[in-house]
């Protein structure tokens, strides 16, 4: 070979096969959608091309003799704190192709994770902790605008009757929801699973911007329908199918840019649901071109309220960016019932790597800033706050509620629950775990029943843990924790960080 | 047999006005006449079915947004957002219209006699039997047909108040990956988005244009022959995947 590029052998993973254990059964060949494993006719045995391995671990998981090990490729270069291997690889790829670097899932880069620097309180002696196995514990959450005050009249029976007309509310059994993942970015089996799981749990899932397949309309009470800039599959039936409508302005993984669902992912069913032609790219413009101001946003919010005859709350989802507090205030004043904020670590099916890893701010800071701003302005009751972007466990959820969230959106956690290994290649449409793919051969690796049960189990488990943490703090209702930052203490944070988060340092 | 419902919209807030319209439709009205309309928003928003709405006066923003089926006739100018994300039906404006007409429109027709503002027909998309169509009698502002994914835009440039402006503003059809833009006469090359160019129309195009113009002229009481007595050009996407080669896996 006269010329071989440096990155031919400088790849991310090595496929290590134990020859003594391998029985040449070809399971790995069939499982790997990236064709990293292949049958070598001449040698009469299974071989591997490690350069094609994305590190999804599907082969390792399914190998009947446990003969496969996926490792990081250990190719030691001269150490350089500035020119880390990632940047070398990026440049080699871009020099070869001239392309924008495309990535999937949330940002893996080392942005401070404030959840890890916040610790929760518990009761000792002075007020008793509560055992949730013995005492009732309230996790029920209502999302939507709350009135400034309540007025009552006397009913005919002499009892007080509520006179104030309440705004429409989204009723949730847990303070969390499955975040927007469009049908198209993930396949139909997982949309059925999310719909069923949300229904059984008494929470909501979000359709994402890909419309809603007719067969899922029956789960409408547990569905949030999303309207994004491409307006895919948005029509009057869709707008009236759910329990809430969400306007997607931005997404934490890619603030300020639109989306391209590549033509490869647009199969017959996706085409039908999005109402776009087969195989054609589905392009979502960066902004909604009918929204160039808060006033325009207000116009769309009320267009949607008119279209749904004011029956359901309208949510506005934004990415957490520098001026998030002022923007959220504008959204509240524009008439939204819910503001959803997606932090810099939020997931995605596809985003340019530079945007994903460098644009936006952490959800913890954004959430605290928004909650405080809305309180300062006396309009916190007008909107519910939903926090999203990297909620990994029930403790993150509890900390988010204490920082001021009414509820959290989770999506990456949901995908991990059904087998995602964060290989971050969602945009290829070849997900070997059958998640981010519409290839029927791969998608059938997800059984809707099994996937729904895993999602249900996850939320049940988190629910128990939240109850334990609440009980430990002497609280018997999630409502008592909302915005209760006195239940949080910081470890190792600067004065500025603590001021923004509104928390004291541990020991104070 | 059309059941007519007439309403004096003067001084009524949009929310009450639209509630009354919905109530009339629920009670079987199929012909709705709104008099003294003065900027009320969301008229015929998400309205469904075989209904005619006659608007006397200037309707407010988002006229006929998410609409599926009705015919709306405006005997005056219209504001921004006419036919936003419209699904089906017909909107006829006997005057000019503002910005963002037919944003993300999926089906139905919008006929405008005069000029339109910026960002008209952005992200129109066709699907199966749905073919969204906008006919503009006057001139258009910037970004006409941007990101267009399907449907037909027909720009006549005839009934315009903008005597010195080009027929279409800048960035005409930028990022379009479906559908077609027809222009009567010529369009300056510098107004057209990157990678696109104005091409001569063929016989199939001419038949489509003639059919549309006849329908348009009939609705607005214009002379179709006069409109058709000129050459037309078309602008079509160079690819249905304009950004397909933009990315490399990281």
CATH superfamily of the largest domain in chain A: Aldolase class I
What separation lies between the terminal Cα atoms of chain B? 64 Å
Order of helices and strands of chain B: EHEEEEEEEEEHHEE
Structural class of chain B: alpha/beta
Instruction: Give the name of the CATH architecture of the largest domain in chain A.
Output: Alpha-Beta Barrel
Task: State the CATH topology of the largest domain in chain A.
Answer: TIM Barrel
| Order of strands, widest sheet of chain B | 1-2-3-4-5-6-7-8-9-11-10
Strand order of the largest sheet of chain A: 11-21-20-18-17-14-13-12
The number of distinct β-strands of chain B equals 12
Main sheet record of chain B: 11 strands, mixed
Describe this structure in words.
The complex is a heterodimer of chains A (508) and B (250). Chain A folds into two domains: 11-99, Alpha-Beta Plaits, CATH 3.30.70.20; 167-505, Aldolase class I (TIM Barrel). Chain A is 29% helix and 17% strand. Chain A is built from 15 helices and 23 strands. The longest helix of chain A is centred in the C-terminal third of the chain and has 25 residues, at 448-472. Chain A is globular, with a radius of gyration of 24 Å. Chain B is of the alpha/beta class. Chain B contains three helices and twelve strands. Chain B has an eleven-stranded mixed β-sheet, with helices on both faces. Classes of the chains: A alpha/beta (508), B alpha/beta (250). At the A-B interface, helix 3, strand 5 and helix 7 of A face helix 1 and strand 12 of B. Strand 5 (100-103) of chain A pairs parallel with strand 12 of chain B.
Task: Identify the notable features of this structure and list them briefly.
heterodimer, A: 508 residues, alpha/beta, Alpha-Beta Plaits, TIM Barrel, 2 domains, three-stranded mixed beta sheet, 15 helices, 23 strands, globular, B: alpha/beta, eleven-stranded mixed beta sheet, 3 helices, 12 strands
What is the structure about, briefly put?
The complex is a heterodimer of chains A (508) and B (250). Chain A has helices at residues 27-31, 58-62, 85-97, 188-201, 236-239, 268-274, 294-307, 324-334, 353-358, 363-376, 394-403, 412-417, 440-443, 448-472, 495-501; strands at 13-17, 37-40, 45-48, 68-72, 100-103, 118-120, 141-143, 152-154, 160-162, 170-172, 176-178, 205-206, 223-227, 244-248, 259-261, 282-284, 314-319, 338-342, 351-352, 384-388, 407-410, 488-490, 504-505.
